[in-house]
Amino acid sequence: MAKELDTLLESIEEAGGFRDVCTVFQRSSVEELVHGIAVLSKKCRSWKVTSVPVIDGNVMDEQLGKIQQHLDKTVQGIFKF
Predict the structure, then answer these.
(1) Is 54 exposed, middle or buried (0-12, 13-18, 19+ CB in 10 A)?
(2) How far apart (Å, rounded) are the C-alpha atoms in residues 64 and 71?
(3) Which of 9, 12, 44, 79 could form an S-S bond across to 18 if both were Cys, CB 3.0 to 4.6 Å?
(4) What GO terms describe the biological role, i.e. biological process, of this protein (predicted)?
């Protein structure tokens, strides 16, 4: 039984195995997420530059930081798979 489990684990971890397939399958989702976050980040910067003085610049910086943290966690989660 241990030998069969070792063989299964090897097939999952080998090049082109299940692990690679899952990573490749998620790549387009991650790329789409990265693109969406980049667009949102650009809009936030635009709003910061053109915004009325009522909006505190620190709030925008904080939101941009949160967006970057979410992106980092998403990418880390996918590559842990």
Answers:
(1) exposed
(2) 11
(3) 12
(4) RNA export from nucleus
pTM score of the predicted model: 0.40
Identify residue 49 by its one-letter amino acid code. Answer: V
Report whether 44 contacts 50 (CB < 8 A): no
**Spatial distance between the Cα atoms of 8 and 25, rounded to a whole number of angstroms:** 20
How many CB atoms within 10 Å of residue 56? 11
14-63 pLDDT, tens digit each: 776 666 666 666 777 788 888 888 888 888 777 666 555 555 556 777 77
Structure tokens at 45: 């910067």
